[in-house]
Automatic annotation (TrEMBL):
Name of the molecule in the record: Oxidoreductase
Residue ranges constituting the Enoyl reductase (ER) domain according to the UniProt record: 15-325
Cross-referenced NCBIfam families: oxido_YhdH (TIGR02823)
Highest rank taxon of the organism: Bacteria
SUPFAM superfamilies for this protein: GroES-like, NAD(P)-binding Rossmann-fold domains
Organism per entry: Rhodoplanes tepidamans
Amino acid sequence: MSSFKAIVIRKGEAGQTVGLADFDESELMEGDVTLRVEWSTVNYKDGLAVTGKAPVVRRFPMIAGIDAAGTVETSNHPDWKPGDRVVVNGWGCGETHLGFYAEKARVKGDWLVPLPAGLEARDAMAIGTAGYTAMLAVLALERHGLTPDRGPAVVTGAAGGVGSVAVAILARLGWTVIASTGRPEEADYLKELGAAEVIARQELAEKVRPLAKERWAAGVDSVGSTTLANVLSMTRYGGAIAACGLAGGMDLPTSVAPFILRGVALLGVDSVMCPQHLRREAWQRLDTDLDRRKLAKMTEEIGLDGVVEAGRRIVEGQVRGRIVVKIG
Ligand SMILES: NC(=O)c1ccc[n+]([C@@H]2O[C@H](COP(=O)([O-])OP(=O)(O)OC[C@H]3O[C@@H](n4cnc5c(N)ncnc54)[C@H](OP(=O)(O)O)[C@@H]3O)[C@@H](O)[C@H]2O)c1
């Protein structure tokens, strides 16, 4: 019986434990494709899973990790054959289905996306769920008909993973980007990624007025709560905000004023159950619209043995940009 190294979360009487362990291949869950995982990444949700800070994990034991890039080893799925290079994220992996902080994974072939021709597996995981979600948010703004000539775009939680990638993509697409961060020391970093202006998180943390001075035409919000409510109240007539996160809280203390008096739209973004055609579009656009030098600037690399510590750091808001995990 062969085994492989994985970050395994177990639940016992004393609560949840997490650590690097040997996992038996016979315990892999059902699926028609077996992958050799080469790279993974640490997202906010991974941090919640490994720290147990929120009930992300719904099955025990669980291999944590919601993202993978790697190679198909065996396949009973008509679309995939051994040697194919693929990306997979979401669909409950790392939550209800065994995830990807592991040398091996078994998944449904329907969940896989081909690794875009211009991306290395490591690049794909430097992007990861956070970056792909940022791209989904930009696609949502575009589908709403917004273009850079309508005014600036705001990005909240800008020094985080979703935020950093959103800043880089929007700047590349010609938007004037206003980056909101709680870490003023990251202002130069955000400007290097393409932000035209950096504002303090606190500016969006004040008591929410139904309508405030119009400041931006579009936005990508990974913070939620009062921040998102303030962002909406400051959105220009006919603008839209793509909401994808809750780093600041799950509530939304807003009023209908921005929607009914300024025609502002709130666009929801979900990466987990996102349909295949949108995933493929997002990965193709990431291939063309994300500057690799900027991606390199925002990425740090760790091994499997660094995942738990990185998970702790990300839920404390201490991670800048993205973390890739080299597997094996
Ligand atoms: N909808 C989806 O499918 C989807 C997909 C991916 C991620 N997400 C969500 O998006 C959010 C960001 O994910 P991520 O991986 O980018 O995490 P991350 O790297 O930790 O980024 C989150 C950023 O939010 C800011 N922040 C943290 N705590 C805050 C607080 N209390 N108040 C205000 N701002 C705060 C920080 O940015 P600054 O230091 O710059 O202020 C932090 O870097 C998470 O909530 C995650 O669950 C959702």
